[in-house]
């Protein structure tokens, strides 16, 4: 071997450990999804503290929560196809950088305007990162199971949310500066995520066209399936909106506790069951999951309304468990269905459009419930939300019944 060849081989050998392969890219994208949901849920345990400190009404709290979704609604139609043009990795890095910036803004917020600004940054970052991360997981899925990517996306998002809720409650209860530490951890993890993404392979398409904002669209031939998948994800998100924006207030109403560690643990129960359930869904067909998700969501809505009406902590805990399982079924089923339907060259844009609609309905749910809770009562608002989401569940079921042909496009032939 010549000296030049030896030097080249040494260069390759030293470079390889610095780069991650497809498997590493898959888990790096899962980490991105976890952080996106971490940023969404980090303030949930702290909302009562903000409300007491700054004298905020329920509608202000829920609009702070929904600002995240509203930012997504703006970002996704304009930039949802960026990762199709410039690669998943670059767009995920940009999104995580915005989430890291949001952590700084919220950590040192002197009044509620900074919460709105931080939530805008979080929503914009998640809007860029989530579609790209989901597409990256699909494309770097090294498992033989085609549904592994959508299942792991569910587990990743629930893990990020669970840890955020638990740590926020523990930090606020047992550390000084209760509104600071959860965001400092988020900032550190954002830095770790960007570092990991930089080590993954470049995935910018070899054939590039000039980028331009792309109006939301659904590729022809998959539209009914897209609607079913999107409404299934939206159903999960809308129930989650009530839970994350007003769940801490409901616990306070039932127990009159100001122990944020207890509040965080109760809220984390639901997201933990999302992840636990998600581990067992990889082999179940998307349509079956959507059916089960819609049905079990009806049960969870009944428990939610009963918990509010009777101010019962056991019923609230039951809602957390059943609602978490229902969320996992509906979200994984919807994501699994669109994974099978979306063509690769439009996958980022299609996933972003799905998230756009789902987050629009989530924002509308949060703001609507907050407005009703402010003008009437929290109990009345929860009852109205339960009725509205029952209708959405029925719509999903009706669409599944009306479109039996979707089975032919989504189910593999039995072996």
From TrEMBL:
Keyword presence, Transmembrane: yes
Any single GO CC term annotated in Swiss-Prot or TrEMBL for this entry: plasma membrane
Segments traversing the membrane: 25-50, 56-79, 91-114, 120-138, 150-172, 178-200, 221-248, 260-282, 289-310, 316-341, 353-374, 380-402
Keyword Transport: yes
Bilayer topology annotation: Multi-pass membrane protein
Alphabetized UniProt keyword annotations: Cell membrane, Membrane, Transmembrane, Transmembrane helix, Transport
Domain Major facilitator superfamily (MFS) profile: 25-406
Entry GO MF terms: transmembrane transporter activity
Main location: membrane
Subcellular location: Cell membrane
Alphabetized InterPro entries for the sequence: MFS, MFS_dom, MFS_trans_sf, MFS_Transporters
Protein name (database record): Major facilitator superfamily (MFS) profile domain-containing protein
Species per Swiss-Prot/TrEMBL record: Kocuria dechangensis
């Amino acid at each position: 071997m010549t000296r030049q060849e030896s030097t080249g081989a040494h260069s390759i050998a030293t470079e390889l450990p610095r780069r991650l392969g497809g498997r590493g890219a898959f888990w790096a994208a899962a980490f991105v999804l976890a952080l996106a949901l971490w940023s969404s849920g980090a303030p949930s345990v702290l909302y009562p503290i903000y409300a007491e400190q700054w004298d905020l009404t329920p509608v202000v709290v829920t609009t702070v929560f929904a600002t995240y979704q509203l930012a997504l609604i703006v970002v996704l139609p304009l930039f949802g196809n960026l990762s199709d043009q410039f690669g998943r990795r670059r767009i995920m890095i940009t999104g995580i950088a915005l989430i890291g910036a949001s952590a700084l803004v919220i950590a040192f917020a002197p009044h509620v305007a900074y919460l709105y600004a931080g939530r805008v940054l979080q929503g914009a970052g998640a809007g860029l990162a989530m579609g790209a991360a989901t597409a990256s997981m699909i494309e770097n899925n090294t498992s033989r199971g085609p549904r592994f990517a959508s299942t792991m996306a569910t587990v990743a998002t629930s893990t990020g949310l669970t840890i955020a809720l638990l740590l926020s409650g523990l930090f606020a209860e047992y550390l000084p500066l209760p509104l600071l530490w959860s965001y400092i951890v988020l900032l550190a993890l954002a830095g770790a995520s960007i570092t990991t993404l930089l080590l993954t392979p470049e995935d910018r398409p070899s054939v590039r066209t000039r980028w331009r904002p792309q109006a939301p669209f659904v590729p022809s031939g998959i539209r009914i399936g897209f609607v079913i998948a999107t409404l299934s994800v939206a159903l999960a998100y809308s129930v989650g909106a009530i839970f994350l924006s007003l769940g801490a207030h409901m616990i306070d109403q039932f127990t009159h506790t100001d122990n944020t560690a207890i509040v965080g643990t109760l809220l984390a129960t639901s997201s933990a069951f999302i992840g636990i359930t998600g581990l067992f869904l990889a082999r179940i067909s998307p349509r079956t999951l959507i059916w089960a998700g819609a049905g079990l969501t009806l049960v969870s809505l009944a428990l939610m309304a009963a918990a509010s009406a009777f101010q019962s902590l056991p019923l609230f805990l039951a809602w957390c468990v059943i609602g978490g399982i229902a969320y996992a079924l509906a979200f994984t089923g919807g994501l699994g269905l669109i994974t099978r339907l979306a063509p690769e060259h439009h996958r980022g844009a299609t996933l972003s459009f799905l998230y756009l609609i789902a987050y629009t309905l989530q924002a509308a749910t949060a703001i609507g419930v907050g407005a009703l809770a402010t003008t009437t009562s929290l109990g009345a608002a929860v009852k109205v939300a339960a009725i509205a989401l029952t209708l959405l569940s029925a719509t999903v079921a009706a669409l599944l019944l009306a479109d039996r042909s979707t089975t032919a496009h989504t189910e593999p032939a039995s072996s």
